[in-house]
Structures are given as structure tokens and as C-alpha cells.
Amino acid sequence: FLVLLLVAPAFLLYMLHRSRVERRKMRRLIDRLRLSNSKLSRYVDLDDLTAAQSRRYLVDRIDRHKRRETHALLYVDLDEFKTVNDTYGHDVGDALLIKVTDAMVAACRPGDFVARLGGDEFCVFLKGCDLERAGRRVMRPASIGVCELRPDQSMEDALNVADAALYEAKSKGKNQILVADQDVVLRMRQKQSR
């Protein structure tokens, strides 16, 4: 019994020490995981070619926050881009995409951003911008569909509206800006219901 009384406190001290060591290891591991998650999140949020924001960033991050104001979306599709790839090769096409992205980013105000949706399609998010001002902030040659992103509207729904306006701009001869009005939305909804 006396041995147990002498060993028990030593054993408890040893277990307390091991517990502290394990907690320190766990804290270091958690810190490393947080840093890795932060780096991974930035990687996933950026397009790997152009370093523009990704479609995931556009949809997830914008819809995650409650919006109190209306913003503008420009759905940009570079006209005849396939010809560049076919004529000069994908390396030249990639270089052109990077240059176009850089030019769009340079034209953005604080709070605006450019997201690459895929291929030669981009979305320019114009924070707190109305449709009239949005149409004046555009570069060419590209076909562009413009729409509002209302506080009560999902990003995916707004992208569909901007895409419908883009489709109509392309069908009217390309190198145009078309602002989505009620007629564009109505035609889009009719096509979706078929």
C-alpha cells in the first residue's frame, strides 16, 4: 500500500506531463492545418492560368454574404477566340487570355473583381454599380451580357440572366454589349421551361 501511495503521484505527474506534451503537439498540428487550408482555399479560389478569381469563388463567396445593394455582372465572351487557338496555337491563346484578364483587372475599381468561368468566358463583378455605369466600363472586341445582381437573387440565377443576354448579343453579330431587360429574362425562362 505504501508503494502505491508513492507511485500514484509520480504516475499522475507523468500523465499530466504527457497530456501537456500532446496538447502542444495538437496545437501545432491545428496551426499547420489552418495554414494549409488557407493556402488551399486561395488556390481553389483562383483560376490556375489567369490568376483571376474562379467560378467557385464567384458563386460561393458572393452568395455566402447577405447583399444590401445591387451590383452589376458583365458576362464576357471573347469573340473568335477559337480562331486564335486554331491559327497560332494554345500557347498564344493562353497568353492572350492572361493579357485580357490583366486588362480587365486593371480596369476594376476597389471591390470589383474578374472571375474566369472557363475557356474564354469571364464574369466581371462590379460592386454597387448600376446598369448604365456598367455598360460604360467595358472593353472590346468581346460580346458581353450585362445584368443586375439584386440582393434577393442568387449568383447562379444572375449568371444565367447575364449568359442569356450574352447569347443574344452574339446572335446579333458579336462585339456588342446587351443589357438584360425583362424581354431577355422572359425568353430565357421560356427556353428553360421547354
Describe the structure in your own words.
With 194 residues, the chain is of the alpha/beta class. Helices cover 59% and strands 17% of the residues. It is built from 7 helices and 6 strands. The protein has helices at residues 2-45, 55-64, 81-88, 90-107, 131-136, 155-171, 182-193, and strands at 53-54, 71-78, 113-118, 121-126, 142-149, 177-179. A 6-stranded mixed sheet has the order 1-3-4-2-5-6. Strand 3 (113-118) and strand 4 form a beta hairpin. Helix 3 runs antiparallel to helix 4 (90-107) and helix 6 (155-171) packs across helix 7 (182-193). The longest helix has 44 residues, at 2-45. The radius of gyration is 26 Å and the shape is elongated. The mean pLDDT is 86.
Keywords:
194 residues; alpha/beta; 7 helices
User: In terms of structural class, how would the helical and strand content be classed?
Assistant: alpha/beta
Helix content: 55-70%
The order of strands across the largest sheet is 1-3-4-2-5-6
**SSE arrangement, N to C:** HEHEHHEEHEHEH
Give the low-pLDDT segments. none
Largest sheet: 6 strands, mixed
Number of strands: 6
- End-to-end gap: 86 Å
Task: Report the radius of gyration as a whole number of Å.
Answer: 26 Å
Shape: elongated
Average the pLDDT over all residues and give the rounded result: 86
| Helical run tally | 7
Estimated share of beta-strand residues: 15-25%
How would you briefly describe this protein structure?
The protein has 194 residues and is an alpha/beta fold. The protein has seven helices and six strands.
